Amino acid sequence: MNDALTSSHVRAQRRHVGNIVLAVCVGAGGATLLALLAVVIWAIGQGLADIGGTLGRRDDASDTFVAAVTGSVVVSLVATFGSVVIGVGAGIYVSEAMNRPRLTRSIFGAVQSLASLPSVVFGIVGMRLVTTGMQQMPGLVAATLTLSIIAIPRIMLATRDALLQVPNAMRTASYALGATRLQTVRDHILPLAMRGIAGGVITTMARTFGATAPLVMLSLVLGGEDAWPTLPAAAMQAVVAGGKSSAELAGAAVAVVVMVHVGLTLWAGSLQRRFQREPWS
Description:
By secondary structure, the protein is mostly helical. Helix content is 86%, strand content 0%. The protein is built from ten helices and no strands. Helix 2 (60-97) packs antiparallel against helix 9, helix 4 (119-131) packs across helix 5 (139-164) and helix 5 (139-164) packs across helix 7 (181-209). The radius of gyration is 24 Å and the shape is globular.
């Protein structure tokens, strides 16, 4: 009887402690989320004012801002879509065509490690590309190659995750009807997984658009007119220069990066949620 009472008392204490820990975690998470949301809203609101001030002056800062926006859009699009063919193709081949489970796990483990590296590491890689045997590399090529190294592992992982969510019954039914592996992937698996892959590609595009460290490091190495104009590099140079117009330029650049990143991330999340709600998933 005493043992039963003691056990019941211990369970009650554990539930009480668990509830306290849960409340603390929820409170800390909620406070962090609210603080992050407040910072993002403040940055966007202040940045919109800075954008208006920068574009309204019609001076060198305005021209720099327009060139940086255009340059960031171009390098992000080229790096992302240039990586789609490699990333999606490699993801499909390793996931669907390679009949070596151990090798497949090893490859995706290495890809996961690359995708989890901080962006400053890729900036160092980009600097090495420029400072070694490729000194004459144009700024656009250097920036595109550096961001492609960031994009390819993430696109491969997004492709794998989307393909894994397609049930094996789809593959079995296709093989039973006489389709080859290539026909099964091309005509049945890939169309079903396309929405999930698209979500991963858009998320990667947001990451490449806001990749600050690699672009800033490349601009420092190339310098002057050789560096491709981007928003992170423009913001860094404006902060170094100082002054009211430079401060507005930096704020405007940061605001555009934040707004584009948030917008693309929300769009990608919407696509992936719709993909996960498919009736066959």
